[in-house]
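tool_log.txt
---
The assistant was asked to compare two proteins side by side. It first ran the structure predictor on the initial sequence, then on the second. Raw inputs and outputs are pasted verbatim so the downstream comparison step can read them without reformatting.
(1)
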Amino acid sequence: MVHSDTSGRMDIDRRGFLAAAAAACFSSAAQAAGLMGTQTGDRMIIDNVDRFRVREPLFEGARIVLGFLGETYTPAYIQGISGAAFRIAGICPCATTCSSQMWTTDLLKLLGYQYTENILGWIGDVDDAKRNMAALIPKIKDSIRARRPVLLWYAFRDTAYEFMDAAYEVVVGYDDGEDVFLGWHAHQGPEEGLAKAKQSRAQEAAAFCPALGAIFIEEKVGALDARAAEVTALKEAVRHAHDVTKPGLPPHEGLAAYEYWVQKFKQVEAKREAGDSHCHAIYSSTHRAAGEFLKEIAPRYPRAAGHLAKATTEFAAEADTLDEAGSLIGWQSPEQDPDRKLWPLLAEARDHYAAGIAQIENVLPLLG
């Protein structure tokens, strides 16, 4: 069940892991005990909602909301079946949302959930977005009072790079005294408290990208076909890694994107750009989840266990190498790499990714 407040003008449906599982169990217990929210005057917060465990813009927020509602999917599992764990594209600012196996609402349908979608407007629909936001804000507050967190596009994260702030973030509260929503986004540190931003902020996305508004996750009406979802994700991981069918946006996919990255930083004059740092932040996190996902599903595929174990090792090594490169390509790194230490690390990470994908290719014939 999908509804849009913009008369159907836009169809987007085409488009620490163990700790998180424990947190999901705790939140279920908290619900049973009635310890779900704190309200003081004009301020309401849903307690015991997990935070982001993976830096990822489309699916980890949904995992957080579903965890509060009682599901126990690990962050790695959601990254795996959604395909995000195996994705790399660009390299550009929009790559982490423009290249995906599915869209957020597709994941909810896969998991058996109904939802209502309140889209604010398309690119440039600034006035429509403002008008629709005025109607959406009370709905979000109603959901918070009902102890149901809300996914809100472009809710909190605020940097100078708007495209990279566009993501589904989790609203868990509001403070009318300050006129803000409260919640979590993917780039908060582990010690940071709730983020806050003005309640109307999501409408501002219409100035530079689709203002996708809110997703309200509703009743569970179906069940996940886990084997089908897992096999589909593995097949798509292999297809994506070898995808050379574009140009488009993003300009490169899979191994071609990695190769572009390596070749860029082989050049003496190469400069780190915002898209480099953004893609590094996301993919270093999601590709670590790839190894965790494969390790999690391996017991269900005993014939393929050896290949899955090798793939797990390769994706973990890739993530370690990307982490090592952080001082050279992360947000706080210098603009240039005069000693040219970055490209060998990217090449090493690429090779681990390629080896992991090759092991998944070996798995596919064994799945029946």
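(2)
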Amino acid sequence: MKKKSATIITSHSPKFGYLIKLLDTFYENVEQPHDIFVVFSDENEAERFSNMCTNKYNQIILLEYQRKLRSIVNVKKLIAIKALYKEYDWLGVYDCETEYVKPVNLDELYSDIGSKKYFKANYSSLGGPVIKKIATMLGLEENEKVIKETENFTLYWWFQNIPVYDTSEVGRFLEWMDSKPNIEEILNEYLCFDFLMYSLYMIAYRDWKVRPYDFHLDIGAVEQFRLDEEQRLKIIEAFQPNWCVDRTNHSKFPFVKLIVHSDNAV
């Protein structure tokens, strides 16, 4: 029988300070037991971190041929998902520049996020074209459901909440990805973010929806740390995300459990 959930974290040597902070706050605030996996590029990187860290974690190390793909962060996430999806119901997958700032049961949180079957989005001058580029590389640029739900590629939902994978769907998604004749090109494209590819698949083939919010920005609203405090608060109140970039005000919102982009949090 599968366990409820696990967390997958990507990192590399220049970011090890953030990874140590993530693990410190993980054990301070995440209800245990909960399995956490860190994906490393190679054995040397994994060994360097093990010599720095006293906290417990599991590790996944890329094979040599996988390290040659240019979009290394997305590759790390997809490799880890492929390795673990048969063992857990839900997988939360994100980067090491994250902190757990309130007590949280991740089994419950991931289940709540992943079972909603929709993505919250804003209108985005830069993000919309990113969605269209990914859809084009996946052969979905003319898919009627994708065009409708993205409002003709004007919406963006990357990092609006914690990326959570429903593992009952992941096997089919990975098979579909592997069937793509341009799979190597996809894995070499930085903008082919893992969760956006998964979400476009879910929209096109599993009838998931996009819920637009009336914020018009360059990128995703929740991860936009360049806004003033009033704008940031309006976005948190509207989206009610379980993470945010607002280190100053997160305590006002009990539903915010994590800080994302902790290297740029305000």
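---
observation on (2): DSSP finds ten helices and eleven strands in the chain. The first helix runs from residue 16 to 29.
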